């Protein structure tokens, strides 16, 4: 194959594998072509080409399969997505902890790891018995632990735990996920000028589809608990799709979060390329996180109801008193943290997956200085110092 990222061949592969050809509504081929063109220029090794191309084909297969489910069951698009609770914040700021605590409440629903890996079941699935996608996802989890232990240590993904929905934005090919795994300067710059509305419309559609599936399986919870650091730069579009959402904004010292994010990106780059410029990875991640946080603060400044719409939570406070911080969220949304929900959260805290030790990382590894981080995040640190230093608001 001369160019493994040739668009027509990639699209045709997905259609052949699913024996389907209806992509459904929403423009995605334009962004896909920009991404594929930059992948074709990237310095990828053979494993990287295989992993990244296979991931795109899988995304396209899920789009085809989802559209066929909707064709057969048009009532999917009648699903009303209740106002979600959305946990945001930079990577390693405690977003996973807060999401999974909230998701323990049986009144809420989330996207589990196994649902994220294969959002659309096979077309012959009858929604009876144990969903076969769970075993597939558990096998994938085990394989990741074995073959990519460093990546799993930095960013573990568990089949039966709540996961972030960033994959649905990536499936629309308007996403910052690809730049985390390869040097894609053209796609990266192009993204900064794009309207992400189609990606957020696709996210809404996929939540409708997941909610319909959950109801078929007898799941009673209705209010979604979402989570993704990716939403930070697009709070206006997120709210456009979910007007009555409530945001939980997690905060931590950017010196720690930027170093951790650079470490994850460097690990992903190394899986896909034989040479990785760690300083370039660090510079790109610092720029992206600064850009993202600037946008988040600007959108929040434009909201007259920001104080009622957003609950700010510090990482240290969440670790020290997770139930107490979650109670603040319940107070903000006007819902009781009842005994059943609190008991479920405490059970989760007792049995949650124990993460293995992460590989060491330091800002200097990525060509960054603490003073650089402080300077770039001066407005953020000034605004949220009470949270990044571990204090809580009364």
UniProtKB/TrEMBL annotation:
Transmembrane annotation, as ranges: none
InterPro entries assigned: P-loop_NTPase (IPR027417), Stf3_sulfotransferase (IPR052736)
Keyword Transferase attached: yes
Molecular function terms from GO: transferase activity
Record keywords, A-Z: Transferase
Protein's name in the database: Sulfotransferase
Organism for this UniProt entry: Mycobacterium asiaticum
């Amino acid at each position: 194959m001369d160019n493994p990222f040739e668009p027509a061949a990639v699209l045709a592969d997905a259609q052949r594998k699913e024996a389907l050809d209806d992509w459904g509504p929403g423009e995605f081929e334009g962004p896909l072509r920009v991404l594929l063109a930059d992948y074709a220029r990237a310095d990828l090794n053979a494993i990287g080409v295989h992993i990244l191309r296979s991931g795109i084909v899988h995304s396209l297969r899920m789009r085809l399969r989802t559209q066929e489910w909707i064709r057969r069951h048009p009532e999917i698009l009648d699903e009303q997505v209740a106002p979600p609770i959305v946990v945001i914040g930079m990577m390693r700021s405690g977003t996973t902890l807060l999401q999974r605590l909230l998701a323990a409440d049986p009144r809420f629903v989330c996207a589990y790891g196994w649902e994220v890996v294969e959002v659309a079941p096979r077309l012959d699935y009858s929604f009876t018995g144990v969903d076969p996608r769970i075993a597939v996802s558990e096998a994938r989890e085990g394989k990741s632990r074995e073959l990519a232990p460093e990546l799993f240590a930095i960013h573990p993904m568990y089949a039966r735990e709540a996961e972030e929905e960033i994959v649905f934005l990536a499936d629309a090919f308007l996403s910052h996920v690809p730049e985390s795994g390869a040097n894609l300067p053209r796609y990266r710059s192009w993204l900064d000028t794009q309207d992400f509305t189609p990606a957020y419309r696709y996210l809404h559609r996929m939540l409708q589809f997941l909610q319909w599936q959950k109801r078929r399986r007898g799941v009673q919870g209705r209010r979604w608990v979402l989570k993704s650091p990716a939403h930070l730069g697009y709070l206006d579009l997120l709210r456009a799709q979910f007007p009555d959402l409530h945001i939980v904004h997690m905060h931590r010292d950017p010196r720690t979060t930027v170093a951790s994010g650079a470490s994850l990106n460097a690990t992903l780059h190394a899986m896909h390329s034989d040479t990785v410029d760690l300083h370039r990875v660090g510079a790109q991640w610092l720029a992206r996180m600064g850009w993202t946080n600037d946008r988040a603060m600007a959108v929040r400044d434009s909201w007259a109801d920001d104080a009622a719409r957003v609950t700010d939570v510090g990482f240290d406070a969440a670790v020290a008193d997770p139930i107490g911080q979650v109670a603040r969220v319940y107070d903000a949304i006007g819902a009781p943290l009842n005994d059943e929900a609190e008991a479920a959260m405490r059970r989760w805290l007792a049995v949650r997956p124990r993460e293995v030790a992460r590989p060491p990382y330091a800002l200097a590894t990525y060509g960054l200085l603490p003073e650089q981080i402080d300077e770039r995040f001066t407005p953020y640190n000034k605004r949220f110092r009470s949270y990044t230093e571990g204090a809580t608001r009364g």
